[in-house]
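ok posting inputs for the beta-D-glucopyranuronic acid job
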Amino acid sequence: EDGYDLWLRYRALPAAEAARLAPHARAIVAPATTSPMLDAAIGELQRGVGGWLGTAPARTDEVRAGAIVLAMPATRGATAAWFDGLGQEGYRVLRTRLEGQSVTVIAANTDRGLLYGSFAYLRGIATDGAQKAPDLRSTPRLPLRLLNHWDDLNRHVERGYAGASIWHWWNLPDILDQRYTDYARANASLGINGAVLNNVNAKPDILTAPFIAKAAALANVLRPYGIKVYLSVRWSTPLELKATATADPLDPAVAAWWRAKSDELYAAIPDFGGFLVKANSEGQPGPHDYHRSHAEGANMLARAVAPHGGIVMWRAFVYSEDKPTDRARQAFDQFTPLDGQFDKNVIVQVKNGPIDFQPREPVHPLFGAMPRTPLLMEFQITKEYLGFSTHLAYLGTMFEETLRTDLRPGIGAGGQAATVTRVLDGTLDHGQATGMAGVANIGTDRNWSGSHFDQANWYVFGRLAWNPEAGAEAIAREWAAQTFSRAPRVVDTVSAMMMASREAVVDYMTPLGLHHVMGTGHHHGPAPWVDNLARPDWNPVYYHRADKAGIGFDRTAHGKGGSGSAGQYAPALARLYEDPASTPENLLLWFHHLPWTYTTRSGRPLWDELVHRYDAGVTAVAAMQKQWDSLAPYIDPQRHADTAQRLKVQHREALWWRDASIAYFQSINGLPLPAGARAPAQSLDDYKALKFPYPPGNG
Ligand code: BDP
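and the output
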C-alpha cells in the first residue's frame, strides 16, 4: 500500500461482502451510443467491481437481472422521475426493476452525470460494504470546481511538498504519463471539473505554440473525465514576446493580440476554460502599470475569450508596495470601488482570508462587499503555512469554518444565514453561482500528496466544492473508510484525529488570532522575531506587534487607533470584531492589541492563556500519536509507519514552535512563565540561529 491508488483502492472484498455485491453487479448495461465520457464511467465501474469481486462485469446492451444500468431519459423503460431536477451534472442511483428485472440504476441526463453517478455508486459500496441497496441522489451546488496548480514549466511546484510537477512539460505532447489519467479519475470521483495547469506566477512561454500543443495534449486526456483545462497568464505576455510595444489593456494592438491568441487556444482546445490572472501583486505586472484598473484589465481579457464561452478569473490577492496601510485591508480598498464594473465572464477570485492562507484567518471581507460581482473562493490545499506535508492537519474544518461564516449575523436574508456558501452559489446577492478553486497539493510523490493524510485535503476540497454543506466530519469518515478501512474503530479514530488536527496546528503555531509569524520565505517554523525584511508587511513583528505592554494587531476603527479593517465587514459582523469582548477568542489578536494582563474567557490573563494554548497544541499532537499507534493492527504496515514517522516530527516541531514562541514573547514582555509551565528547552538565540537551506516549494 504505497498510497498511489488514493481513495479509489477497490481491494478484494471479504467473502461476506462480495457475496452481497455479486448478485447486483453481474453486468453493465449502457446506452448504445458511446462517448469517451461514458467509456470512462464504464471503465471505472469495471475497475471497481472487478477489484472487489475478482472479475469485472461485462458491458452489454441487454437489461438482465443483477445488472448495473446506466440510464438516460431515452433508455427503454426508464422512469421520468429518476431524472427530475438532476440538471446537467446530477445523478440518481437506486435499486429498482427495469423490463421486469431487478437492477441497479445509475441515472443522469448526461454522460457527465453518469460518470459522477458511477463514482458515487462506487463510493457508496466502498463506504458501506454493499450492506444496503444504493439510494443516492445529488447535484452539485457550484458549477466551477477547480484545482489551481502552482506548477512551473521546469516542473518546480511553488509551495509544493509532494515532489515535482506531475506535468512533464518536456515530454509533452507526445509522451503521455498514465498519471494524467489517474489524476483525472481521482478528480472526477470528486466532481472536480477544471484544472489551471500552471503557476499564477506565470511565464509568457505558456502561451507560445509549443506549450499550447502540450496543454492541448493534457486537455485530451482530461476531457473524458469531465475536466477542462485553464491557464494562468502573465499580464505582459505580448510585450515580452515582442508582439506588441506595450501591455496597456486599452491599446487596440494589445487587445487584438489577446483575441488572436484566444482563437489559437480554442482551435487547439475547443473546450478551453479560460485564464487565471495574478496582476499587480507581489511584483507581477498588471494594468496598474498603465494606470488602468483591475476591471479594465480583466475586461480586455474577458472580451478575448467571450466569443468562445471562456472566463477570466482575476485574483484579488493584492497588496501594494507603496501604501503602508494594513495589508489585510488592501484588497478590499482596491476592489470594492470596482464592484459592478467587471464584464459578465469575469469572476474575481478571492482567498479565504485577507492575509494569506494562515492556519486561521477571519473570512475575507470582500465576500460581503461585492454584491454585483461574482466571486470565486480560493483555498490553499497545499499546506504552505500548516507544516507542509509533514504535519497532519485536515483542512476540512478550516474550509468549512470559512464557508459557514455568516457575513451578516442577525440579519439573515429571508430567514437564512448570509453564509459565504451563499455568496458562491449566488443566492445571496448577484444571482450567479461560481465555485471554488483549490491550490493543489499534488506532485510526483508516489502517494501524490507527500503524506497519506494530505490526500484527504484534496478529497475534502473536491467534496465541498460539490456540496459546501456536506460536513467536514462526514467527509473525513468516508475518506477514512475508503482509504484505510471500513472497520468502525479505524473510521472513528482516524476521523477523530483529523477533526482535531487543524486546531492543534493553530494552537502550537498561531493561537488566539496570531498570524504570519513563520520563517522568512519558506514559512517553515517559528520566526516571530523577524523585523528586517524589505517590506514592513512581510515581517512577523508587523503582524503580532508585541511590546512590553501587550500584543496583537489593532484592526478596530481609525478613531480608536486601529487600522479600520474590522469596519470592512457588514455592520453586524464589524460590531462583533470591534470589541474584544465579542470578538471570537480564536481571532482576538487578529483584531485587537491587548495588554498581557487582559482577562481571557478562561479567566486566565492573556499571557498565561497564550502559553496554555501552545501547550494544548503540543498535547494534541501527542494524543494523535497515541491514537495512530492504537491503529497499528488495523492499518497496513507501510502507510502506518510512514504516518507514524511524520507524527513524530510533528510532535518535535510543535514543541519547537511552542518553545521558540514562548522564549521570544517572554524576551519582549519580561513576564515569568505561568505556574507549572515548562521553560523553553533552548535559548532564544538558539532558535534564531536555526537555518533551513533548500526548503521545498520555495524558489
Ligand atoms: C503566497 C505564496 C506565494 C504565492 C502567493 C499567491 O507564498 O508563493 O505566489 O501567495 O497566492 O501564499 O500569489
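notes: The mean pLDDT is 97. The longest helix spans residues 637-669.
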